[in-house]
Amino acid sequence: MSALPILPAPSGVPEEHTVAAEWTAPAWEDIVREHGDRVYRLAYRLSGNTHDAEDITQETFIRVFRSLASFKPGSFEGWLHRITTNVFLDTVRRRQRIRMEALPDESDRIVGSEPTPEQAYQDANLDPDLQAALDELLPEFRAAVVLCDVEGLSYEEIGATLGVKLGTVRSRIHRGRQALRAGLERRRATPPTERQVEPRPVRARITPLKGLRAVMP
């Protein structure tokens, strides 16, 4: 597995921001190198496809860069979880609004010709059936289940990430797990030749970040 490319900080903006006397933000290159793969994996598990995962990853790092000076010392990974999840949910809401306003009759998903499910497994480290069942969950349930059962966050951390109360976190995880189990049972009761698993290509390392400088202010 090749190392992540070192991306220069966007021109005209300092590479380090002092946000508090006792804490100095890491250099831009260090953020990408240390957290790029983790952000992409979370984006992939939330979105279920490489195209959206790449877009979410790029938008996440844009938001991170723009907000770095205002970050308060604490859990940097938790902050990244929150931004990535919010970008995913924003993307879903935007698409739902566009579909309702402009594409009321175009609800069918079109599957293109792409590589094998085995490659998707290698990319996301999740069983293809599990990823497919996750894709069927409502976005709010999917985010809660992924953050809890895949990323290993506590209920309190998930509540902070999603901006919801602890009871809502428990409810979403419980209902999401129920729906996930039902989806897995349906898929595993179906012969492999009849399963609809959307193939997904293995991504190049941090592909979406190559053009990051071009979109920075």
From TrEMBL:
Keywords: DNA-binding, Sigma factor, Transcription, Transcription regulation. SUPFAM superfamilies: Sigma2 domain of RNA polymerase sigma factors (SSF88946), Sigma3 and sigma4 domains of RNA polymerase sigma factors (SSF88659). Gene3D superfamilies: 1.10.1740.10, Winged helix-like DNA-binding domain superfamily/Winged helix DNA-binding domain. InterPro entries: RNA_pol_sigma-70-like, RNA_pol_sigma-70_dom, RNA_pol_sigma70_r2, RNA_pol_sigma70_r4_t2, RNA_pol_sigma_r2, RNA_pol_sigma_r3/r4-like, WH-like_DNA-bd_sf. Residues 31-97 form the RNA polymerase sigma-70 region domain. Residues 130-180 form the RNA polymerase sigma factor 70 region 4 type domain. GO terms for biological process: DNA-templated transcription initiation. Pfam families: Sigma70_r2 (PF04542), Sigma70_r4_2 (PF08281). One of its GO terms (molecular function) is sigma factor activity. Belongs to the sigma-70 factor family. ECF subfamily. PANTHER family: RNA POLYMERASE ECF-TYPE SIGMA FACTO (PTHR43133), RNA POLYMERASE SIGMA FACTOR HI_1459-RELATED (PTHR43133:SF8). This is RNA polymerase sigma factor SigE. It comes from Nakamurella endophytica.
